[in-house]
Amino acid sequence: MMTSATTDLIRVIADPLRLQIVTLLARETLCTTHLVEETGARQTNLSNHLKVLREAGVVETEPCGRFIYYKLKPEVIEALAESFGELAATARTTRETNRKRAC
Asked: Any idea of the CA torsion for 79, 80, 82, 84, to the nearest 10 degrees?
């Protein structure tokens, strides 16, 4: 069953720019400057999205001199994937047993 935390995480990642950020951070740790270059988003807009991702626990920061680098927390994505895997398994069982509610 999907928890409210899982639902909140889906909402956070569902935004197209945040999903793009997550996808980029899955490949490498990047600073805001790199993310601006890769996404074409404005720095202030990107910073706001990074704040949402940070507060949701999807990314973590790593200071490096005067820059802040962002990295994806894979365990968060794994937990989300596990939730979807459980949902798929339930749907498979329901389909195989032809389970339906009577009208």
From this structure: 170
Q: In what order do the strands lie in the sheet with 67-72?
A: 30-31, 67-72, 59-64
What pTM did the predictor assign?
0.87
Instruction: Give dist(CA 70, CA 31) in Å, integer.
Output: 6
58 and 22 in contact (C-beta within 8 Å)?
Answer: yes
Per residue in 4-42, pLDDT tens? Answer: 888 999 999 999 999 999 999 999 999 999 999 999 999
Q: Angle at which helices 4-14 and 74-96 pack, to 10 degrees?
A: 110
Nearest residue to 26 (alpha-carbon basis) of 77, 81, 58, 72: 72
Angle of helix 16-27 relative to helix 4-14, nearest 10 degrees, comes to 90
pLDDT at 86: 92
Q: Let me know how long the chain is.
A: 103
